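Possible regression after last week's pipeline update?

I re-ran a chain I had predicted before the update to compare outputs. Posting the input and the new output here so someone can diff against the archived version. Not blocking, just want to make sure nothing changed silently.
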Amino acid sequence: MKRMKTFLVFVAAVLVTGLPAVAQDATTPTRPPTSKPADQGAPNSQPPSSSSQSKAGLEHVLSQLDKGASNFRTAEADFVWDQYQKVVNEHDIQKGKVYFRRQGQEIQMAADITEPAKKYLLFSGGKVQVYQPGINQITEYNVAKNRVELESFLVLGFGGSGRDLLKQYEVKYLGTEQADSLNAEKLQLIPKSVKVRNNVERILLWIDPARGVSVQQQFFEPSSDYRLTKYSNIELNQKIPDSVFKIKTDGKTKVVSPQG
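New output (post-update):
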């Protein structure tokens, strides 16, 4: 259950009243960006040769994200989530498929987790639902009050614009780097909100420059725990059945809400 709570913190990236969270001291200072051993595939990254090159690189990536956002309707991809807990030096690997859809003014997200244990996560209609078919139970969190913030977090690299990034994060261009077989553009994001930063200290994004979508993401907590996500087989703007954004249950399915 601890891992699921940590996962939901990363999903929400905001302190939602009643939503399970890893409590952090509100006065925890933001450490300056450094190259940490936990960064995956980043030890040989070289900074841009000049500030002008860095600025030009950032403008290019933001422009590609803007272009992708203007055309975005849906996205689906295979994923591997690596949740690392430093205190026990332990990795929790989960695999599955994730779906995003813009439905009117709303962004919907579904994650079909297939390994190691079957779970289904759905964000729609101001709720986060986690379905565990093994015990036939849905755990439901009402996040309607923070829906906009949650959506802006979920669409990092999938339908979110570059200009919106600048409103919510201090954004730094870190050059190009291989992510799987792609020569990706790498960005570092520092949340401007102290409330968010107390949970997620910084974020790394690897962006496909041709399509303006994220192929890899890494989220760091102040504790140096992190979640690394790798995406593959990304498909954009293909029709996704409505059934993907509904949890299949039966008359015996139990629904619980930690918020009462």
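Follow-up from reviewer: compared with the archived run. The chain has a mean pLDDT of 81. Marking as no regression found.
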